[in-house]
Amino acid sequence: MNTPTLVTYLVLAAVVVVLLGFAVRQMLKGWMHRVQRQAGAVGLLPALPDTVGPATVSATKGMYIGSTFTPSWQDRIAVGSLGFRSKAVLTRYPEGIMLQLTGGSPIWIPEESITAIRTERAIAGKVLTYDGILAIRWQLPSGTEIDTGFRSDDRRELAKWVEEDSK
């Protein structure tokens, strides 16, 4: 390889690195702008209770998909723990629902805030070909109504969540 060709490759590589860095910076800037824009609507999440009764629906392992503003299944919330997809364990108590996230803060959904629990095919950009996502509609302390999506490792476990809500 001669020197002019090597210099050309190095210049092109530097341009590609700069363009990739710029694209990543713009994506992060957009995400942070979304967080700032949504912070007022989301407000503070409910505090974890000091004690809870025995579980009415046992722990269900799976994936926290994300939360969205209702009624749009695509308007993803980016604020705090609500904004990041992660492995999770979902458990229902008489006082509410505990969503324990791997690598994140737990999310507490008080019983009086829950308006519906159903299965869906899509939420927060995740789309399935079957009703395999548990969607919990609830109201934040700020008054904003959101849907929280959870995909169980075993799809058959979702039936006990929907049954428990219909009681």
Automatic annotation (TrEMBL):
Top-level division of the source organism's lineage: Bacteria
Keywords per UniProt: Membrane, Transmembrane, Transmembrane helix
TM spans (from-to): 6-24
Native source species: Mycolicibacterium llatzerense
PH domain location: 43-164
The protein's name in its UniProt record: Transporter
Pfam (any one): bPH_11
Listed InterPro entries: PH_bac (IPR057446)
